[in-house]
Amino acid sequence: MPKQLTIGSVGTSAIMKLMQQAIAATPGVTAQAAYSRDETRGREFAQAAGIPEHYTDYEAMLTREDIDAVYIASPNRFHLEQAVRAMEHKKHVILEKPAAVRKGDAERLVQTAEKHGVFCFEAISTLFMPNYLALKERLPQLGRVRRAEIAYGQYSSKYDAYLRGENPNIFNPEMEAGALNDMGVYCVHTAVDLFGPPETVDWRGEYGPNGIDLAGQLALGYRNFTCQLRTAKNKDIDSGCRIEGERGLLCSHGALNEFPNARLELDGTQEDIQLQRNVQNRLIFELARFRDAILERDRAFFQKMARQSVTTAAILEAARAGLQK
Question: Which of the residues 137, 166, 286, 293 has an alpha carbon 20 to 30 A from that of 306?
Fold first, then answer.
């Protein structure tokens, strides 16, 4: 079994910069090559991140035998095509969220991975944050859940450009963007991980002139309660989660993708959970887990994450279509 995971990357966005910093800080992971369609941007990004090689030819990067996995952080529209090509070259894939926004596309990712004997993981940092894992572990202590609220949203740095009539990717329907697919996907993943697939999906969105969703509310119906999700990219909202049960509540306040804290209130007592002191980069937790899964050939973890991504994509698709699942 190899002891080192060598990564080729796709994209030069802010999240890719953060991931490259996580790679540099994570033992057993090395960045070997970077792909960008723009030669200058790709070269400057690779130099700044200390990546030895850069490419404008994606296929050329994929033919390298010294690359084990590809981390993809391109606009959402290109995720499926780029991930499939990488897996056809027998590269493992880590896809920036959302891995897919349609159930069929998520299923194709899983099927392609299985066909070529590789893994494909959706990078959703919330699910790997220590504070979140501690909250999840304590969830059964609440007894039957009565209601749940999960929210994540903030005023986008690209929103002013959108208001000026520009067309940034994150507000471009052709790029499969928007509030639900961007920040809202953290809420959906959290709900699915904690409660499983919902019985009903009800989306109410706020849309811009070009049809992109700027904010919205998503109600996921479960047998005994409703999980209310809120998201936005045109305003700041009170982000976090609150889960009420028969015996008490669990809650967290702050950015859902960082999960900076958690609290359990149970039978008149309170436990504050803070396991992430001095964390410099939130992506180190998911990266280390993906590293271990790939190097150890952890198929059970792959299958669990695959079910999570397929369910999440189905919810995103159902929300868009106004369907009930």
Answer: 137
